[in-house]
């Protein structure tokens, strides 16, 4: 084999952020011919990341539809990839994480007997409906994958317990840490003037995202009620809530927080703005998965607005706490961080277990090793 023919697939903003450093690393290697296929499961937010990292896809399935369903996404990805795989005949397909694009991409490759590399493999909650549908997307992809790029030793342990051979698992760190080397800037100015008017030095600014399906309804209502009380009880605090565009979330958030002083309700920001807001803020409250990895890298405590997490390493390290959606518990733990400098220091100075900025390099080296084209020795990331 002179060159490894590879197709890298992603379709949402979180996937794109985390795959971008790997795409750039693959481009450097003369032994790898990498083609990029985007599904555009999320169109606008995906395009923002492509522009930020100057990535031009070779294939764009453009599958996004209004009110799209999981079944529809899966069908359109499978159909779109079938023709691409027929024409390209790749040696390896790379997918990332836990989206429907990820699972459908792996399944399409399996149907063509193409090897699959799974980036960010091995994360588990062991509850198939939390997070939904991500937990099963990740497990099903793992069942198909030939190469498992686990971000931590904990993720590797999960895969070993499920019977994956150790020689198929590579502990690499998380590529999102690689990405943040490109996005975070000192003295950053936001494109949104409202964000530029906030006094980040003298106010305790809490960045909030909450939109997961399992929190729709009562969960989002409890979160918003808790935020309202946190603002009322802490006059030195401001909240920036990046509100998901889904009406199920947006309507509830604006109903409860729309007229509350010192609460800034803004649409989702692009990747660079999100990372720089995180860098300036006091703490993060979120039900997102990726922010649990990104915020600790910047020394920001995270309260996770979920009952379970597939990222327990940061909880064990002390930089993340699971809060759930109980109103009183959210208020109690947020107030501890706002009012107790010692509690804050413990979380903000905890070591981030998710990476050292070299994950994309390790993944690429592992691929070369797997196809017997490696020149050096692969060295794992030590996450604990």
UniProtKB/TrEMBL annotation:
EC number(s) reported in the record: 5.1.3.14
Keyword field: Isomerase
Keyword flag Isomerase: yes
InterPro entries: UDP_GlcNAc_Epimerase_2_dom (IPR003331), WecB-like (IPR029767)
UniProt-recorded Gene Ontology molecular function terms: UDP-N-acetylglucosamine 2-epimerase activity
Domain UDP-N-acetylglucosamine 2-epimerase: 24-367
Family: Belongs to the UDP-N-acetylglucosamine 2-epimerase family.
Record's protein name: UDP-N-acetylglucosamine 2-epimerase (non-hydrolyzing)
């Amino acid at each position: 084999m002179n060159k490894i023919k590879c197709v890298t697939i992603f379709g949402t903003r979180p996937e794109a952020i985390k795959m971008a450093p790997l795409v750039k690393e693959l481009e450097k290697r003369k032994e790898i011919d990498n083609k990029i296929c985007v599904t555009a499961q999320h169109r606008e937010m995906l395009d923002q990341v492509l522009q930020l990292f100057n990535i031009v896809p070779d294939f764009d399935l453009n599958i996004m539809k209004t009110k799209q369903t999981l079944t529809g996404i899966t069908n359109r990805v499978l159909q779109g990839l079938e023709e691409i795989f027929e024409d390209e005949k790749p040696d390896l397909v790379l997918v990332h994480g836990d989206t429907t694009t990820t699972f459908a991409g792996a399944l399409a490759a399996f149907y063509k007997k193409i090897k699959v590399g799974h980036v960010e493999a091995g994360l588990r909650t062991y509850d198939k409906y939390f997070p939904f549908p991500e937990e099963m997307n990740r497990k099903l992809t793992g069942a198909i994958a030939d190469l498992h790029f686990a971000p931590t030793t904990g993720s590797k342990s999960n895969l070993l317990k499920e019977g994956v051979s150790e020689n198929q698992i590579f502990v690499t760190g998380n590529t999102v840490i690689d990405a943040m080397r490109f996005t975070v800037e000192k003295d950053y100015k936001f494109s949104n003037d409202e964000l530029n008017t906030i006094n980040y030095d003298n106010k305790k600014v809490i960045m909030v995202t909450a939109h997961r399906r399992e929190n729709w309804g009562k969960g989002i209502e409890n979160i918003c009620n808790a935020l309202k009380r946190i603002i009322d009880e802490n006059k030195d605090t401001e909240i920036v809530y990046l509100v998901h565009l889904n009406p199920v979330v947006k309507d509830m958030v604006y109903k409860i927080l729309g007229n509350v002083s010192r609460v800034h309700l803004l649409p989702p920001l692009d990747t660079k703005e999100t990372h720089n807001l995180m860098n300036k803020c006091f703490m993060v409250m979120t039900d997102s998965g990726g922010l649990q990895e990104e915020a600790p890298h910047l020394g920001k405590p995270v309260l996770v607005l979920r009952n379970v997490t597939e990222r327990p390493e940061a909880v064990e390290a002390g930089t993340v706490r699971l809060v759930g959606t109980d109103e009183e518990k959210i208020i109690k733990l947020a107030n501890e961080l706002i009012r107790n400098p010692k509690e804050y220091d413990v979380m903000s100075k905890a070591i981030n277990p998710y990476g050292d900025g070299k994950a994309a390099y390790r993944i690429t080296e592992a691929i070369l090793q797997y196809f017997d084209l490696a020149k050096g020795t692969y060295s794992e990331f030590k996450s604990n």
